[in-house]
Design a protein that fits this description.
Elements (H helix, E strand, L loop, with lengths): L3 H10 L6 E5 L7 E2 L3 E2 L9 E2 L3 E4 L8 E8 L13 E5 L11 E4 L3 E4 L2 E4 L9 E2 L10 E2 L2 E2 L2 H9 L4 E5 L3 E6 L4 E2 L10 E2 L2 H11 L3 E4 L7 H10 L5 E5 L10 H7 L3 E5 L3 E2 L5 E5 L2 E6 L3 H19 L10 E5 L10 E9 L6 E4 L8 H6 L2 E5 L11 E6 L1
Parallel strand pairs: 6-7, 15-18, 15-19, 16-17, 19-23, 21-25, 24-26
Antiparallel strand pairs: 1-14, 2-13, 3-12, 4-11, 5-7, 5-8, 6-10, 9-10, 20-22, 22-23, 24-28, 25-26, 25-27, 27-28
Helix pairs in contact: 1-6, 3-6
């Protein structure tokens, strides 16, 4: 068995960043932008009015009068110049006319025909947004997974299409004679395939395209056929069949089909029987069949592999810290990821593991919002000790 840290390094070693592709900005939400995007214009591209009011030149004082010589609105520039004693009616977002040094808000003005008089409670602000106040041409948006606000910024930069990393194609293969798909009628000795739907959702949430393949039955011929259907995927994820029993065929059949195995078995719980390698150009991850084991290993290994393929600089899940709400015993020789519940508290939150950690119990996983990390060989811990956890 190898440690979780070594297994993580090895699975990431199987994953290189995929090539970029140009997509229209309207289809770039959630995509990974691997290189900086450079603005092609200033924002705002001109000195712009921040308020509705009157653009005037020079100093102002209560009671001053001005003659209105024109109007400027958003998208409609005033072509002339503002001189002493002159004003231009202006609206929010309009270019500030040449010569104007401030915008007096309309609430501070009395207007009569083409004349305005300033009131005695003038706003101290110039109410002008300077050209380039937000960004300048050549300013960069750094590499990132694009959020809605990023799309707005790219649009303001006048970028109509953006280079994003190609979505990884992930083939997910459930295995086992005991499985049927949801909605089917299982025999008395069968169960419903469940964990593959969580894995599919997790992969899609990271930006992958997922192909959920048919259940591979416990024969070499059937498994070979379904593995063949994964051709063209960037990552092949099998679920079940990765242990050492007579019916656990994934490692043997994949080996006969060209698998270059990186490792098998990790010193962790849940999820000890986990396998990884490279199969005909694709990364391969063989997850255990127990529902919780598969999903926990999906968080720890599958998700970082997808992030690495997308070119994210830091693909590993981020841990956080909490205080134990109760004492816990020693861990033994394997790192234990315990389903746990967080509780708000002053400073660090509290964390309490569920009593049962059976890897077949999905209900407890749905009630969990954290995985308490108990390192291998860690001794007993008292209530109040600070520990690491993974948010769920």
């Amino acid at each position: 068995m190898i440690s979780v840290e070594e297994a993580t390094a090895r699975v990431l070693g199987l994953c290189a960043a995929l090539d970029p592709e140009d997509v229209p900005l309207a289809r770039a939400a959630g995509r990974m932008m691997p290189a900086p995007a450079l603005a092609v214009r200033d924002q705002p591209p001109f000195d712009a009015s921040a308020m509705d009011g009157y653009a005037v030149a020079g100093d102002v004082a209560p009671g001053m009068a001005f003659r209105v010589i024109g109007m400027a609105a958003a998208g409609h520039v005033f072509a002339g110049r503002v001189g002493p004693g002159e004003a231009v009616r202006i609206f929010t977002g309009a270019p500030v006319p040449d010569g104007a040094t401030r915008v007096v808000i309309q609430e501070d003005v009395t207007a009569e025909g083409d004349r305005i008089t300033l009131g005695d409670r003038l706003d101290a602000s110039t109410n002008i947004r300077a050209r380039g106040q937000d960004f300048r041409a050549g300013d960069a948006l750094p590499p990132r997974r694009l959020r809605p606000a990023d799309l707005a910024l790219l649009a303001a930069m006048n970028i109509g299409s953006v280079a994003v990393t190609r979505r990884p194609v992930v083939a997910v293969i459930p295995t086992g004679d005991e499985l049927v798909m949801p909605g089917e009628a299982p025999r008395a000795d069968q169960i419903v395939a469940s964990n593959v739907f969580a894995l599919k959702a997790m992969a899609e949430a990271e930006g992958a395209e997922v192909r959920l393949l048919p259940i591979a039955r416990d024969t070499e011929a059937d498994l070979r056929v379904v593995l063949g259907l994964a051709a063209g995927a960037d990552l092949v994820v099998t679920v079940g069949g990765a242990s050492v029993g007579d019916h656990d065929l994934v490692g043997r059949v994949a080996g006969e089909m060209g698998l270059e195995r990186s490792f098998y078995k990790i010193a962790m719980r849940p999820g000890k029987p986990l396998m990884a390698g490279r199969l005909n150009g694709a990364a391969m991850l063989g997850l255990p069949g127990n529902p919780v084991s598969a999903i926990v290993c999906g968080h720890l290994f599958m998700v970082p592999m997808i992030r690495a393929m997308l070119g994210q600089a830091d693909p590993l899940p981020r841990t956080a810290r909490a205080r134990l709400a109760e004492a816990v015993g020693p861990t033994g020789p394997r790192t234990h990821y315990m389903r746990a519940k967080l509780a708000p508290a002053e400073g660090l939150p509290g964390i309490a593991p569920f009593v049962s950690q059976d890897s077949a119990l999905l209900r407890i996983l749905t009630e969990s919002d954290a995985l308490l990390i108990r390192p291998a060989g860690d001794g007993p811990r008292a209530a109040g000790d600070v520990v690491d956890y993974l948010p769920l």
